[in-house]
Amino acid sequence: MDISVVLVTQNSEARLDSVLRSVANFEEIVVVDLDSKDRTREIAESHGVSFYSFKPKEGTDHVAEARRYGVLNARNRWVFLLRDYEYVPRKLSEYVHRFIEENPDVYGLFIPKKRYVLHRFIKSAYPDYGLRLIEKHHSEISPFDGSQPDVKGEVKSIPASEMDLAIVMLTIPLEVSWRKDNMHSKYEAALRINRKVTFATMLFSPFFRFLNSYLVRGAILYGREGFIVSVRESFYNFMVLTKVHESQRIKQFNKQYENTGISIPELQEE
Question: Does domain 3-169 have CATH number 1.20.210.10?
Answer without folding.
Answer: no
